[in-house]
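--- STAGE predict ---
source: upstream dedup step, 1 unique chain passed
mode: sequence only
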Amino acid sequence: MKKLFLFPLLCLLLVPITSFAGEAILRVSCQRHDRGTKIYINNNFKGECPVDLFLPAGKQLTLRAHKMPDKDHEQIFSTQFTLIADVAKRIDVRLSQPQLTPTAQKAHDLKVALQKEQAAKEARQREMAAAQKDLLAAQGGDITAMAVMAQRYETGKGVQKDPAKARSWHTKIDQIHAEKAANADLKSAQAGDTKSMQSMVRRYKHGEGVQKNSAQAKAWQLKINAIEEKIKQDTIARNKRQDAARKRAQLQTEKDAISYRKNQKAFDDWIGNRGASGPLEALATVTISLPAIAGALLMDTVSSPTRVSESMKISKKLNAHASAWAKPNSMMAKAYRQQQASSTVNETLILASR
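--- STAGE serialize ---
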């Protein structure tokens, strides 16, 4: 009973004291599993949660709750507040999720940095090994590896960045391509392709894909000139043969048009077209025809020397054209002249038989 009487009396005594001092009561509470959390007011330790504190009123204060679930992690709660004199205040602590302490965070960051540095070092070593492999392949003539090495020296990947070496590898690649193209041109030129020959002239003049050599350039130019001259002469000869063939065809047509029975044939055609409808008319036709036939034969005989002379003139022209061919001693020319000679003999026999 005495204790129950003393507590209200103590409260009555404290109220004037706190009011006089300008203080207020702050109750800091927390969840059951967070009990034992250290409480700091303006960075001064005040006890462990839960706790009741008498603090100055009218000033802005900072409460900081701190708990360490293990040696590397901490949970924090922080808030600012101002107490009013004679007015009690309660703050419920809500701790954050566990996070690394500054010391642990620094150690963690250092560990991560070391791991990254080690990974970068291993990556550089792998790139250097790959670069060495590419270098050996490039030195062995691999064009793809040469292109890779040029890019490596441009970017500094696996090797020390070196623009001069990058340009050197690009130059080697261009040289190899030029040499391959030159070999292809040389092969085609040796097979007689004039376009490739012209390419070889240019290559030997300027050293494109081959060693610069003015003598070789001149030699290929002479070959081109010889081929062009031969083509020119062949074209001229072909045109002559075509012209001669046209003239021979024309003369042959004129010769074939000469007839030794021109009048007799005309009379035969007249008889054939006239026809006979009866014995009397047929007898009349025969009676008329006999003198006419004799006259036609006589006229053909008289005109035969003229026609033979015309035929012989045309034959001479044909022989002259045959001898004027691009190759007058060829087998074709000789056979043609022999044929024309045989035709002339036949025409002479025909004339003699008249």
